[in-house]
Amino acid sequence: MRAVILIGGMGTRLRPFTLETPKPLLPVMNRPFLEYQFQILSRHGVREVVLCTSYRAETFRRAFGTGRRLGLKISYVRERIPLGTGGALKNAEPYLKGTTLALNGDVLNAFDLGAFLKFHRARRAEISIALTRVKDPTRYGLVITDEKGMVRRFLEKPSWDEVVSNSINAGAYLFEPSVFAHLPPGKPYSLERGLFPERLAAGARIAGYVAPGYWIDIGSVEAYLQVHLDLLQGLAPFKPGPRARPFKNSDGARVTAGAGTTAAPFVRFSGSVSLGAKVRIGRGAQLTDCVVLDGAVIGDGARLERCVVGPKARIGTHAVLGPGTALAGGSSVGDYSQL
Ligand code: GTP
């Protein structure tokens, strides 16, 4: 089976980090996020991957090349204008054959692809959608299924009084080749808001598979931080990159760092902290549950909590970065500032 991964979005909710680097290439513990998805594919014997690119398309080929290093055969399809999730899939049609697995490039789903495929075949579905259960479904696309696992309704970002289930679209799909005839070529079209409701209304068989196991959509700054905390706490069954090593000055906190990262005396870590390569941490700084990307410099006595610091940012002495702060790469925070 071939897999297609949709990676052309602009990732506006994850700005400022996605201004330089597209969301699927953002580092997660010193490894491009997409490599975690590749781990799932490899575990299930999927070797041929088609990447649907648009925003900053060239950066993907630079990162992964032919895929040989990763044990994959990667092809690239480029959209001159972003075609949306459905248009992107149509654009990749010449590269696909048989039943196709499609994944959003910003979700991490530790699911069993073999079980998903078996479920899809047993229901003779044209489309199967992986579902996951969340506490707050109002921010997502809700999918309502019957007792046999067939989809009965879609509800985009429902209000609380419309919430009749907590199963949401997890961003992983199986498609039969007949689906492609329903995707318009060369124009923007959405799977979630176009193809799925339209095919359901036309009476097509669409199944919803509740995939057990870890799931996260890294689309917001909060979620990007969370995936690091989950990996560091061992809640997500994925291997961080070989460049993220346990950090020596970690005081019982879970801290990893890339090569060349240094911490001056009296630095205090608590919770889970991911440090990139060549980060410099000044004397007496305190870091709690945060992500600091490559080359950032943290001044003496600075305090960081539940925040993300972009590459090569400079934080002045005794500055305080509070929960939710997203500091752009290359920016500077003055001494004693409070964000
Ligand atoms: P936001 O702007 O923050 O909403 O992020 P996004 O642009 O990534 O959009 P969204 O999270 O809805 O996209 C879900 C997945 O589809 C992501 O992996 C995107 O990269 C991908 N995607 C969205 N739009 C396109 C597109 O026009 N072309 C391609 N190839 N992929 C897309």
Overview of this protein structure:
The chain is an alpha/beta fold. It folds into 2 domains: 2-221, Spore Coat Polysaccharide Biosynthesis Protein SpsA, Chain A, CATH 3.90.550.10; 243-333, UDP N-Acetylglucosamine Acyltransferase, domain 1 (3 Solenoid). Helices cover 18% and strands 29% of the residues. It has helices at 17-20, 34-43, 58-64, 84-91, 113-122, 191-201, 221-232, and strands at 2-6, 48-53, 73-78, 100-104, 107-109, 127-133, 141-145, 151-156, 167-175, 206-210, 215-217, 245-246, 254-257, 262-263, 268-275, 280-281, 286-292, 297-298, 303-305, 308-309, 314-315, 320-321, 326-327, 332-333. Helix 4 (84-91) packs across helix 6. The radius of gyration is 21 Å and the shape is elongated. The structure holds guanosine-5'-triphosphate.
Keyphrases for this structure?
single chain; alpha/beta; Spore Coat Polysaccharide Biosynthesis Protein SpsA, Chain A; 7 helices; 24 strands; binds guanosine-5'-triphosphate
Write a brief structural summary:
The protein is an alpha/beta fold. The protein has helices spanning 17-20, 34-43, 58-64, 84-91, 113-122, 191-201, 221-232, and strands spanning 2-6, 48-53, 73-78, 100-104, 107-109, 127-133, 141-145, 151-156, 167-175, 206-210, 215-217, 245-246, 254-257, 262-263, 268-275, 280-281, 286-292, 297-298, 303-305, 308-309, 314-315, 320-321, 326-327, 332-333.
